[in-house]
From TrEMBL:
The modification 4-aspartylphosphate is found at D53. SUPFAM superfamilies: CheY-like, Homeodomain-like. Signal peptide: none annotated. Residues 434-532 form the HTH araC/xylS-type domain. Keywords: DNA-binding, Phosphoprotein, Transcription, Transcription regulation. The keyword Manganese does not apply. May play the central regulatory role in sporulation. It may be an element of the effector pathway responsible for the activation of sporulation genes in response to nutritional stress. Spo0A may act in concert with spo0H (a sigma factor) to control the expression of some genes that are critical to the sporulation process. Residues 3-118 form the Response regulatory domain. It comes from the Bacteria. The keyword S-adenosyl-L-methionine does not apply. This is Stage 0 sporulation protein A homolog. Gene3D superfamilies: 3.40.50.2300, Homeodomain-like. InterPro entries: CheY-like_superfamily (IPR011006), Homeodomain-like_sf (IPR009057), HTH_AraC (IPR018060), Sig_transdc_resp-reg_receiver (IPR001789).
Length: 541
């Protein structure tokens, strides 16, 4: 674990620094606006890397570094300042700073280079101090880290070779097969995770994968980019293509089986050709291209070569889908959904190997058109199909089949809302009552009164109250309360919110009043209702 301390008395600059600093999951980052608090923390908890501003009141960056170095002689420091002052530069380097960065030149790349240099220096010190057994383990970890960096293009093959020689690590001479594994539905799995949850999740995944690799010659599991796992299989003395393929398939089968058994997760995998270490960055990019086939071919696939289909992003492809696409938009603008046109459009996408970006672009426009028409016609779409919620979920979909399924589900929701609207209009209700019901539906979460609705519609509130009671059989307050309780029940059943947060989301002014009204209307407390629904419909994990 690497402990990083950030210090800057300017809150905005500190926030920017935190956003730019991308660190591995095994890093702990603490930030402070007061140098003395940072110093107290380092004395109490220790630290490996200090990144500090230079010009601060009470204690400047030089003083902070000097005092911190007394506590932690092996502390590595990076100075960031808006002051291009030679004395500050000289003093900071005198105190052992690895880098001095001016704030106007600060970027994610510049900060990453300085951070990686600090980590490299840390490893250097640690290697010198360890006994032979621990030293060998440290070298192995360092080798894996540098292989990860060369695969992801963070260092060049030449830098990799230099670093390996510098630390006395033998450069692997055998051929390697790289497997780039995507966890299917990773964004949906981790959508509610915080940083700690993500770290625990990945620790568990990596531990499971490492166990599944036992028995395979020096096979390595390496963390890749977000939602990505890299498997590196050295072929040693094997030269037969058939044996290489057999060994690779055995690794894939074992890892996929273990992850499915332990986490109910599947992998889509791009597999490289056997190559030396210096060719791994190119093979990584090739594997990423292979994985693009998942969008059209579905999850859980193993891809070794690029699709033979010609995937184009040109004008000809767009014009081919233009007719059914425009027909579908026109139908929606008329207030109708046409599944036959939708099926025809998706068939064209699949048969012409449309890339994800183009399908998503057209489907987002279809959704925007549906939402616009729903608004114009006062259709009451269910909560899960409101614009921000559904759009966020739609953009996390990974395959074209998932997209088609979700659009069809949205069509069903749209058709249901349209039918309910038509039934409401045929009830014989006065137009003012219908308008009042629509106003409640759109504004129930806010403080609401009959006077406000009457003013909005430009009618007398007593007259509106009379019409509303004649049409619905309830007074305005009673109907609004029942509607809010109904919405509260929906939110409780979805189990995405705490009960003590729900009352405000549905328009009640206090939890105590909500509790009393809910219990009277439903016959049980909100918590009892949640427990009943949990037994009937257990939450899916």
């Amino acid at each position: 674990m690497i402990k990083v301390v950030l210090v800057d008395n300017d809150v905005l600059d500190l926030m920017q620094l935190k956003q730019l600093l991308k660190v591995p999951l095994d890093c702990v980052v603490k930030d402070f606006i007061y140098p003395r608090e940072a110093l107290e923390y380092m004395e109490r908890e220790g630290a490996d890397i200090l990144i500090t501003d230079m010009k601060m009141p009470h204690m400047d960056g030089i003083s902070l570094i000097k005092n911190a170095k007394k506590l932690l002689p092996l502390l590595h420091t990076i100075v960031i300042s808006s002051y291009k002052d030679f004395e500050y530069v000289k003093e900071s380097f005198k105190e052992g700073s690895l880098d001095y960065i001016l704030k106007h030149t600060l970027s994610e790349q510049v900060l990453k280079e300085a951070f990686d240099q600090a980590v490299s220096k840390m490893e250097e010190h640690r290697l010198k101090e360890k006994d032979p057994e621990v030293l060998n383990r440290s070298r192995q970890l360092l080798k894996v880290k540098m292989i990860q960096q060369v695969i992801l293009g963070e260092i060049t093959p030449e830098t990799f070779e230099r670093q390996m020689k510098k630390y006395g690590i033998e450069i692997p001479s055998s051929l390697f097969v790289l497997m780039v594994c995507e966890i299917d539905d990773y964004q949906n799995i981790t959508v509610s995770f915080n940083r700690a949850d993500t770290r625990i999740f990945w620790d568990s995944v990596m531990e499971t994968v490492e166990k599944s690799l036992e028995g395979f010659r020096n096979a390595e599991a390496i963390a890749g980019r977000d939602g990505e796992l890299l498997l590196l299989l050295p072929m040693g003395e094997i030269r037969s293509e058939a044996r290489m393929q057999s060994e690779t398939e055995a690794v894939i089968e074992r890892v996929k089986r273990m992850l499915f058994r332990m986490f109910n997760m599947n992998l889509s995998i791009g597999v490289s050709n056997p190559v030396p270490v210096r060719m791994l960055p190119l093979q990584y990019e090739s594997c990423r291209k292979y994985l693009n086939r998942k969008f059209l071919e579905g999850k859980g696939g193993v891809y070794r070569t690029e699709s033979t289909a010609k995937i184009s992003t040109g004008v000809k492809m767009v014009s081919g889908s233009e007719r059914p696409y425009r027909e579908l938009l026109q139908k929606i603008k008329e207030g109708n959904t046409d599944r036959e046109i939708l099926d025809r459009l998706f068939t064209y996408y699949k048969s012409n190997y449309y890339p994800r970006e183009m399908v998503e672009l057209q489907m987002v426009e279809v959704l925007q058109c549906l939402w616009a028409v729903a608004g114009e016609k006062n259709l009451e779409l269910e909560e899960d199909y409101q614009l921000p919620v559904f759009y966020d979920r739609f953009c996390r979909l990974e395959t074209i089949e998932d997209m088609q399924q979700q659009i069809n589900i949205f069509f069903t929701c749209f058709e249901k809302a349209k039918q309910e609207r038509e039934e409401k209009e045929h009830t014989g209700f006065n137009r003012y009552t219908i308008a009042c019901l629509d106003y409640i539906r759109k504004n129930y979460a806010n403080p609401l009164s009959l006077q406000e609705v009457a003013d909005y519609m430009g009618v007398n509130h007593t007259y509106l109250s009379k019409l509303f009671k004649e049409d619905t059989g309830e007074n305005f307050v009673g109907y609004l309360t029942d509607y809010r309780v109904g919405k509260a029940k929906e939110l409780i059943e979805r189990r995405q919110y705490k009960i003590k947060d729900i009352y405000a989301l549905v328009g009640f002014s206090s939890y105590n009043y909500f509790f009393k009204v809910f219990k009277k209307a439903v016959g049980c407390s909100p918590l009892e209702y949640e427990n009943k629904k949990s037994i009937v419909n257990p939450k899916k994990v």
